[in-house]
Design goal:
The longest helix has 24 residues. Helix content is 57%, strand content 3%. It has a two-stranded antiparallel sheet. α3 runs antiparallel to α7. By secondary structure, the protein is mainly α. The protein has a single domain, classed as dinb family like domain (Four Helix Bundle (Hemerythrin (Met), subunit A)).
């Protein structure tokens, strides 16, 4: 079903994510951006890079959908698990972490340090993602089924994709904010 109210709510949540990043990380040093609470934890930069990689993995499919060139294959049309996978991802990728998960290798952030431009890169990437979502105003969100760009046997509706990706967005921004709030976080506020 076409659902402009849902699309607008998702876009609003996306804009809230962008505002949160601007508010929390607009004045941050390179050291702070790349600081990690532990070797196994992610830095603020890695959280943002992970979100960029996650969005990018969906862009080819979203580009086809918004251009009117998307055609569902056999798996998308007939998978009996589409609704199950959608519910599963929405449940696992909640904004508030129920349990920690490992990111798939394809969208894991780099281990190396990143430059301060990662914040601007994130904003541009999120803007592109929100433009794709906005362009789906007249798309049947429930009947448009896509396969996961990470695990090709998994399918879910476009509605579920938008919902769990925006939850995922806030999940990792909240993670980055927790890094900043950590007691060991470097105390400088100079670029």
């Amino acid at each position: 079903m076409k659902d402009p109210i849902f699309i607008n709510a998702i876009i609003k949540k996306g804009k809230e994510a962008k505002e949160k990043v601007s508010r929390e990380f607009s004045v941050i040093s390179l050291e702070q951006l790349n600081w990690k609470p532990s070797a196994e934890s992610w830095s603020i930069a890695q959280c943002l890079q992970h979100l960029i990689a996650s969005h990018n993995s969906y862009f080819p499919c979203l580009k086809k959908i918004t251009a009117g060139d998307y055609r569902m294959g056999f798996r998308e049309k007939y998978s009996p698990f589409t609704r199950l996978f959608g519910r599963l991802f929405k449940d696992q990728l909640q904004e508030q972490v129920k349990r920690k998960m490992s990111a798939p290798k394809k969208i894991r952030p780099a281990a190396s340090k990143m430059g301060i431009e990662i914040i601007e890169d994130y904003h541009k990437n999120l803007d592109t993602f929100l433009q794709y979502i906005s362009a789906c105003q007249n798309t049947d969100l429930d009947k448009t089924i896509i396969k996961s760009p990470i695990i090709a046997i998994i399918t879910y509706s476009l509605r579920d994709v938008f919902q769990f990706l925006i939850q995922h967005e806030h999940r990792h921004i909240n993670q980055a904010i927790r890094v900043k709030a950590n007691r060991g976080f470097p105390n400088e506020n100079v670029l």
